TrEMBL record, chain B:
Coiled coil: none annotated. It comes from the Bacteria. Keywords: ATP-binding, Nucleotide-binding, Transport. This is ABC transporter. The keyword Transport applies. GO terms for molecular function: ATP binding; ATP hydrolysis activity. The keyword DNA-binding does not apply. Pfam families: ABC_tran. Residues 24-254 form the ABC transporter domain. It comes from Streptomyces caeruleatus.
Length: 260, 275
């Protein structure tokens, strides 16, 4: 068991690094296309520290780029998640509200964020507003959809039990509908944060510096492939960490999941 | 009619009925599910009066409409025809009766204590009294010391005990139980039957208990009503005068009178289902 859980993932990572190194050293592709692991490591050290009087990348260290992006995600996804929960609760409980909004949310969900980003730039300029809005719009549909489904699927038997105890309509929503929908909603939140994360580079395409997505975009403009790779790895790793944290939060908040 | 006139009318009806708390009265009750060609008559017509303090057991084969009858008394359904009165008024869920369902229907996001507390809150009990009331309720169903347990950590029998304690929280004068022990093993079932009978005897509440088991009916009821197959009507109305109180449950179950009554009820259920 131990071997499978530790050795195999580590082994596959090492194998990947070795293959990468061999591929880079073989000279099949130029260094600009496939930089060696060592080059990427150097780039990582460069953008993480101050050297030759230059601080990180474009005056901002990697961790700061990441922090700024994470703040955008927290704001954007936060707004999207909050709106998604509210809409989900309304749509799950009131039939006509669902009929009214569901087509729009489905439409929004199918759109790639890049599709409406240009419109957001026209409307909101090039500062924080379009970025946060893009992340909010991207995070909103998964939460709204999963909350709607969860609310609509609340066991009638539990609602009846609460009513039999004398619970009012509002009591039933607060004490039965919301907690019963919580596990599914949290799954929607994880999904939403994932979607927001994958929209990060898109959100920071225009005037994205400082910001990790902006860094990737800017480095790409200068064919600075090692920094691009560093940025991609930073986005991936931080995404994994955040997903892990959300998963732990979910287990903590809804320990009854899968036990009913 | 103004609301004061309605109140006055209700009061006068209540006075005529001379109802006591928890008494149930069904007048020519028919209940139909669905409409038009797909309509299905589940119950009726049924005339039934349950005096305050009685332990009535409704027995019948599955699908005879006994659960529907209970849902009508609980106020979850309105009768298609006829009238249902509990303590002289139209039943409303939460106001008139404590209900125990076939499955415990506890809230898994709350502990044992949380489930009881929710019932106390809905019943409008002052928060300062919760600890004492909670302890009383749990003691009554033999669950002392389980307050902090999660619902999935306790057995099915214990879960149904919590459900009973929860149904007792509001101190409604009427308790309705819908085949509450059907899913439990025989040993747990017998124990819970004894406990439910004790609770009913001690609190003097009117109880309506639905089951398909003749054995359970004879053991629990002070009166047994056997229903015909759907649409259910009253096939047999039998007072049970077995000795109660101090008598040992094992002794009661093995007595000749018990066996005879059980055979009588069992026969009635079978012929009512075949008719």
């Amino acid at each position: 068991m131990r071997l499978r859980h530790v050795a195999l993932p580590v082994g596959s990572l090492l194998l990947f690094l070795v293959l990468w190194q061999l591929l880079a050293a073989s000279g099949t592709w130029s260094e600009t296309l496939v930089p060696s692991p060592a080059k990427v490591w150097d780039a990582f050290v460069d953008v993480s520290t101050t050297h030759d009087g230059v601080r990180g990348y474009n005056g901002t260290t990697l961790i700061e780029h990441l922090g700024i992006s994470l703040r955008r995600i927290a704001f954007g996804a936060g707004i999207g998640v909050a709106a998604g929960v509210v809409f989900g609760l309304l749509m799950g409980t009131v039939g006509w509200v669902r009929s009214l909004f569901e087509p729009w949310i489905t439409f929004l969900r199918t759109l790639p964020p890049l599709a409406y980003f240009s419109l957001l730039i026209i409307w909101l300029g090039i500062n924080e507003e379009p970025k946060v809005t893009l992340l909010a719009v991207a995070a909103f549909p998964p939460v709204a959809v999963s909350t709607t489904a969860a609310v609509a699927a609340v066991p009638k038997s539990l609602i009846e039990a609460a009513r039999a105890l004398g619970g009012s309509r509002w009591d039933v929503i607060r004490d039965v509908v919301v907690p019963s929908a919580l596990p599914e909603t949290l799954t929607g939140v994880r999904l939403a944060v994932g979607v927001a994360y994958s929209s990060l580079v898109a959100a920071e395409l225009v005037n994205g510096l400082p910001g990790i997505g902006g860094m990737v975009k800017d480095a790409a403009n200068y064919n600075n492939t090692p920094v691009v790779v560093v940025g991609i790895i930073a986005i991936g790793v931080s995404g994994l960490i955040i997903d892990g944290l959300l998963l732990r939060l979910e287990r903590m908040v809804v320990p009854w999941r899968g036990r009913t | 009619m103004s609301s004061s006139e309605i109140t006055a009318a209700t009061e006068s009806v209540a006075a005529v009925d001379a109802v006591r708390a928890g008494a149930v009265r069904l007048d020519q009750v028919t209940h139909r599910y669905g409409r038009g060609g797909e309509a299905f008559t589940a119950v009726g017509p049924v005339d039934l009066t349950v005096p305050s303090g009685e332990f009535l057991v409704l027995v019948g084969a599955s699908g005879c409409g006994k659960s529907t009858l209970l849902r009508l008394i609980a106020g979850f359904e309105r009768p298609t025809r006829g009238s249902v009165r509990v303590s002289g008024t139209e039943p409303r869920p939460g106001d008139t009766a404590g209900v125990v369902f076939q499955t415990p229907r506890l809230f898994p996001w709350r502990t044992v204590r949380g489930n009881i507390d929710l019932a106390l809150r809905y019943a409008g009990v002052d928060r300062a009294q919760w600890p004492q009331r909670r302890a009383e309720l749990l003691a009554r169903v033999g669950l002392e010391g389980t307050e902090k347990r999660r619902i999935w950590e306790i057995s099915g029998g214990q879960q149904q005990r919590v459900a009973i304690a929860r149904a007792l929280a509001a101190e409604n004068p009427l308790i309705l139980l819908d085949e509450p022990f059907a899913a439990l093993d025989a040993l747990t079932r017998e124990r819970l039957q004894e406990d439910v009978r004790l609770v009913a005897e001690r609190t003097g509440r009117t109880t309506v208990f639905v089951t398909h088991s003749a054995d359970e009916a004879v053991f629990l009821g002070s009166r047994i009503v056997v229903l015909t197959k759907s649409p259910g009507t009253v096939a047999l109305d039998l007072p049970i005068t077995l000795p109660r109180g101090d008598i040992d449950a094992e002794e009661l179950r093995s007595s000749r009178e018990f066996a005879e009554l059980r055979a009588q009820v069992s026969h009635a259920v079978k012929s009512a289902a075949a008719a």
